[in-house]
């Protein structure tokens, strides 16, 4: 039967041998104590919690789902107890500010724990994930009074957070939203409106739910420049800091979803609820963007985590399941002997390991952005984070979903039924391509904004790093063919990037048409670069080195050639996309 | 709200303008009366039935699902009544032999009706689909006595069929199956064993279920050459032809599946059930293969049908949903104005229309194989059918699934919830990549058997047809760039085919490793060929012509370049796939 084991060795290999986090953290006064032993013990402890407590609730939570009874959401059996254990162990405050009771660990560690949470129980992982997003927004933009009142409870996990953005007619285009906020005499506001798709909107696991709600003030300009952000607790907080009277926030319905059934996705009604402004009037979207990079990195990691869980089951099954004969064999073989089964497993591995490397590379840049004493380092890191965020969000969830589909295929008919859990991973992974900005929106963000950000410095910086690794690998004979494939991919990426930023494909329409293929080309090239970095870091005869070299070679031979066709596809331009009149679709 | 309309105009365009079925049927005495008016009225009538009766039951059937009560399967509300209406209208016997009450229409028409059934209600469509498979097997291999007893009732839909092949340890490798058959004194057999994943294994829609069961005789050799086929009715048939006593066939459980919830997929127990041999002892697999081509074509069409249903909803939504501003626009636009949304819709269309063309081309070859008076024509047609069957089964279900994922993405968050039906299409389409031989198995069939079938005549025949179309298109200036893209793809396909059949990639291991990528390359090239044929057939200023030219250009520009990278990937060989020791996965 399937199980999940957190890949702590893989994670430590990346932190120690590929990214050398020890020396990076050594430059940051606030992280100077974060040594490898500390990291490893945190990861091992988190891995045990995920395997022992959260993973066993994953399938039962899917089958039971959440339900709405008398206006209140009931989560599946075992979730509330698991959440209390999670909060008591302090996992909710891992990377939160010590000023409000957090442990202040770096994003690099947080994101690895997020991967484990996503792999073992995505529905569960969203509760603390959304709380953290709310915490980071409040910390960056709210008044000290609100911070003191809300942050300690949220960081402790006593209260959870929810993000109330989407309305039925305002999804990708938040400028269309209609929820209103009217000022009261006491400086607070009255919030009225209906929101949809609100994750963790209500539940029975914590004593209060703190909603961050986007709404319009009476004098708000139309569109995205007239949206403000408000804090609306489910229960108003009394003078003694305890939850008091109900704040007229109600659950209109639970959405019937394809997956993440144990996560209550709510239609929420705010019927004259009391709220407090966070940040500047009409600048609510900007305040939300503070935590957007972190949230999008988290969503990318969801795709990665679920893919790894699916891989673990598929690999176990392939080693045990006897069916057919391998080429040149006379006896029934475990299916891992069949080249096509290996192809599927290697495709999954090749993505998962490179995806994890890209995530960690980016998380470490986030840590530099936050903790590094040198402003120039912080600025450069911020640029890389801004550039890579949409790539990670979209590519890790696209490839992650594709990996779960392959992990299901390895099991044949047994992958289509509930028993082995593979079909749930496909259904759960699918949401990550949609929420927190669809992957199409991410691609637009990359091509229309991030490529030209800061006069193109971030992309030049990244390309410089890729070139450096290509140079380092040049004298290594056993990496020659991998290096060659990465060099080809990189040449395609550079050429297309130039055409999109100041060449024949730089109009808005062309860039929009190119965006999704371009993001895929960008991500595959980054994966190639990181495969080269990983193989450079493991040049001995260990199992680890054999595994890395074989998987890197597979990636170079069987996946990286896609960059050539992506470059061709983009190169033909938007004409074929725009030719058909809308009414003929 | 979503709906489904059978694309009868598209179907008639293919039949009339691309394939010229009228003149093909004119050569076949048994089909000489099948004229275009007849075909069109059959298709329109079938389309109405699917839209009005089956489509409205699709989502309710998914939500309610089947259940097992006191050992009997209860299908969702409305299914039994719909099935009776379906049978009364004679839809179950459309292409069945007139000798047993069928209408004897060609496969070409049957497969179009199958597409509509799959699009409007896949779970429902499997009931008559499996019955037809059983009918064709019985007709080809059973004794006259069995034929007379069973075929009229099955063709009328009074009884349904089920195929009992898989066991828990024998899926892709049927040679491992353990169900036994012991001879009785009266010439029948006693069948004992347990089968899993049995579609339509039991239900409440018809008065009897006729199981075709694979089992081993006492003296059977091991492996696939010791499997025999038996007919086992749920109720033994009395002397008057009515169902009599129960035959010890029971439902062990209903599988909990990702999708097709309204289709009862059963664990079936045969506890000393009485069965009758079909065909020769130990040659049961060969008897099953009779109907395999037709079944696999049907499964391919399931992928196509569900993709079209998803497209119809996605296109409707994209024309209505206002969100964001198109490039160069100042007002909120329907999302079809966004290039990336068009890209998704065009990808779906480009696949669906070419997939339908390939299906019809192949179905027409099946009709030639069956009805043509010239043995040489029958032989050539049989070769093309054998070659294209695995391509259609795998490519139409792979691309079909990918299309439903895109159709879901077009709707954003609304695609992830039940309301619009898009997430059900993804879940339902997923099974077609697995059953009736996984798509990996199909690719093996293509590369290991079909390429070298009949000394390679079928593949040479097909390549000749492609070359002919390329020549026809050569003088047409407006098709130049499409033709160029198809020529490139075809060159890749020819080169790789040569390497696989008698070049450096012709070992079993190499072919196994190449198979899935090769099948995709093969299918994309066929799609390109058929896009060229379709554009050649519509050179006027009609909406149809505009649509075909724009979609063909999109396919040539944005999808066909994938053939280059597939050729590269295959060209690197199996080394990278085989390098990693099994225990390091």
Description:
- Two copies of one chain form a homodimer.
- With 585 residues, chain A is an alpha+beta fold.
- Among the domains of chain A are: 8-137, Acyl-CoA dehydrogenase/oxidase, N-terminal domain (Butyryl-Coa Dehydrogenase, subunit A, domain 1, Orthogonal Bundle); 160-284, Butyryl-CoA Dehydrogenase, subunit A, domain 2; 452-577.
- In chain A, 57% of the residues lie in helices and 12% in strands.
- Chain A has helices at 8-18, 21-26, 36-54, 56-64, 79-88, 107-141, 144-156, 284-320, 339-371, 375-410, 413-416, 422-430, 439-450, 457-473, 480-502, 508-536, 543-559, 562-571, 575-578, and strands spanning 67-69, 72-74, 159-164, 180-183, 189-199, 208-215, 228-233, 235-237, 243-246, 249-254, 265-278.
- In chain A, strands 3, 4, 5, 6, 7, 10 and 11 form a seven-stranded mixed β-sheet that branches. In chain A, strands 1-2 form a two-stranded antiparallel sheet.
- In chain A, helix 15 (480-502) runs parallel beside helix 18.
- The longest helix of chain A has 37 residues, at 284-320.
- The first copy, chain A, is globular, with a radius of gyration of 24 Å.
- The mean pLDDT of chain A is 97.
- Chains A and B meet through helix 8, helix 9, helix 10, helix 11 and helix 12 of A and helix 8, helix 9, helix 10, helix 11 and helix 12 of B.
């Amino acid at each position: 039967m399937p199980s999940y084991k957190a890949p702590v060795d893989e994670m430590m290999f990346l932190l120690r041998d590929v990214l050398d986090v020890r020396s990076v953290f050594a430059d940051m006064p606030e992280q100077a104590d974060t040594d490898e032993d500390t990291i490893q013990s945190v990861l091992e402890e988190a891995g045990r919690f995920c395997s022992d407590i959260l993973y066993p609730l994953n399938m039962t939570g899917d089958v039971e789902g959440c339900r709405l009874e008398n206006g209140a959401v009931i989560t599946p059996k075992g979730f509330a107890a698991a959440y209390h254990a999670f909060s008591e162990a302090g996992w909710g405050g891992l990377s939160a500010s010590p000023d409000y009771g957090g442990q202040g660990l770096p994003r690099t560690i947080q994101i690895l724990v997020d991967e484990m949470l996503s792999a073992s129980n995505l529905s569960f992982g969203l509760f603390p994930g959304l709380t953290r997003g709310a915490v980071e927004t409040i910390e960056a933009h709210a008044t000290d009074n609100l911070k003191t009142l809300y942050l300690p409870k949220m960081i402790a996990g006593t209260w959870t957070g929810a993000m109330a953005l989407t309305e039925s007619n305002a999804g990708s285009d938040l400028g269309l939203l209609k929820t209103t906020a009217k000022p009261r005499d006491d400086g607070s506001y009255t919030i009225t409106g209906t929101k949809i798709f609100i994750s963790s909107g209500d539940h029975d696991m914590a004593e209060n739910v703190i909603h961050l709600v986007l709404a319009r003030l009476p004098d708000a300009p139309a569109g995205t420049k007239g949206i403000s952000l408000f804090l609306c607790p489910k229960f108003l907080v009394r003078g003694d800091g305890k939850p008091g009277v109900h704040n007229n926030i109600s659950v209109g319905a639970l959405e019937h979803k394809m997956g993440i059934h144990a996560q209550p996705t709510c239609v929420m009604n705010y019927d004259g609820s009391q709220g407090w402004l966070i940040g500047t009037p009409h600048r609510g979207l900007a305040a939300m963007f503070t935590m957007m990079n972190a949230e999008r990195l988290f969503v990318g990691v969801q795709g990665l985590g679920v893919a790894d869980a699916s891989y673990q089951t598929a690999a176990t099954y392939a080693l045990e399941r006897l069916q057919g004969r391998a080429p040149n064999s006379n006896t029934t073989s475990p299916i891992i002997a069949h080249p096509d089964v290996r192809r599927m497993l290697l495709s999954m591995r090749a993505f998962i390991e490179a995806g994890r490397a890209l995530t960690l590379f980016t998380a470490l840049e986030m840590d530099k952005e936050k903790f590094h004493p040198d402003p120039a380092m912080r600025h450069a890191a911020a640029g890389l984070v801004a550039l890579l965020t949409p790539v990670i969000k979209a590519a890790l969830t696209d490839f992650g979903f594709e990996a779960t589909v392959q992990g299901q295929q390895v099991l044949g008919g047994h992958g289509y039924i509930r028993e082995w859990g593979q079909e749930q991973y496909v259904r759960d992974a699918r949401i990550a391509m949609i929420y927190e900005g669809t992957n199409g929106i991410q691609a637009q963000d990359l091509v229309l904004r991030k490529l030209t950000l800061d006069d193109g410095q971030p992309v030049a910086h990244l390309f410089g790093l890729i070139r450096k690794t290509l140079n380092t690998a040049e004298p290594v004979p056993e990496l020659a063919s991998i290096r060659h494939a990465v060099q080809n991919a990189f040449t395609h990426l550079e050429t297309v990037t130039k055409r999109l930023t100041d060449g024949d494909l730089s109009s808005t329409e062309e860039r929009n048409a190119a965006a999704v293929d371009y993001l895929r080309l960008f991500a595959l090239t980054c994966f190639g670069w990181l495969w080269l970095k990983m193989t450079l870091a493991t040049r001995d005869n260990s199992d680890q080195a054999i595994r890395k070299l074989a998987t890197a070679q597979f990636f170079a031979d069987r996946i990286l050639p896609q960059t050539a066709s992506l470059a061709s596809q983009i190169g033909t331009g938007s004409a074929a996309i725009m030719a058909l009149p809308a009414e003929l679709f």
